[in-house]
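May I ask for a single protein's sequence together with how it folds?
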Amino acid sequence: MGGARASRWGHYPNYAKEANAQGCLLVQAETTLAVKNLEAIASVEGVDGVFFGPADLSASMGYRGQPAHPDVVKTILDGIATVRAAGKAAGILMGDPKMAQMYLEAGAQFVAVGVDTTLLVRAATDLAASFKGARTLVVDASPKVY
């Protein structure tokens, strides 16, 4: 049934009735082997698009922790062109706004610009920081032993 993420966290009330008719199949390209076989992958009937994972791809290419390395960026840009030439959608996860825009301009049709857990941690950290130094009343509700 998909659950929370698929229904856009409850913002798509007809999800259960319409999901099958509106679904698409995206595969991920996160390794050098996937990139090597990208043309074949993109030509598979039923595959609607390819999603590039720059963090895993950079590690697979020997640039662990460097998703913005020039060789990784070039590989992804070439990959986007390959996927688009096959008539499929190309996408990527990219939290850096400038790089996200670059990939959109290069032909990516969908770009994930945030990760739910990262956004939640950032919001919680900001909220906690907004109370730092504030006088707070702490109530000790722990059981007492006399």
In short: The first strand starts at residue 26 and ends at 29. The first helix runs from residue 15 to 22. The chain has a mean pLDDT of 88.
